[in-house]
Design goal:
The protein has 96 residues and is of the alpha+beta class. The protein has helices at 4-11, 19-30, 37-43, 85-89; strands at 48-51, 54-59, 64-71, 76-84. A 4-stranded antiparallel β-sheet has the order 1-2-3-4.
């Protein structure tokens, strides 16, 4: 999993408060493997499984949303979106 999108988001002065939450989330996911969506839901109770191998995480006390696409067999996580709730409302989490 690349940190490029996380770093770009954190570099924006409007979102600097997200840095510790996103970095903690990234470290946790790097050290864990998941074979199915329910395993993620068990670990992250506030996450949402939205279909099409997408998972939505509530970040920084639910201020931001993070969407990932997971290739479970290959254990690859693609960050598809990081943004505010307002920005999240403007996209389709299953398609991004």
């Amino acid at each position: 999993m690349s940190t490029k999108k996380i770093n770009e988001f954190n570099e924006n002065p409007l979102y600097k408060d997200s840095k510790s939450s996103l970095e903690s989330w990234h470290k946790e996911l790097l050290n864990t493997s998941y074979s199915k969506p329910n395993e993620i839901k068990e670990k992250y109770k506030n996450s949402s499984i939205v279909g099409n191998n997408r998972v939505v995480f509530n970040m920084h006390r639910n201020k931001y949303r993070l969407i990932v696409k997971i290739n479970y067999p290959a254990q690859i996580i693609y960050i598809r979106f990081i943004g505010t709730h307002k920005q999240y409302d403007e996209i389709d989490a299953r398609e991004i």
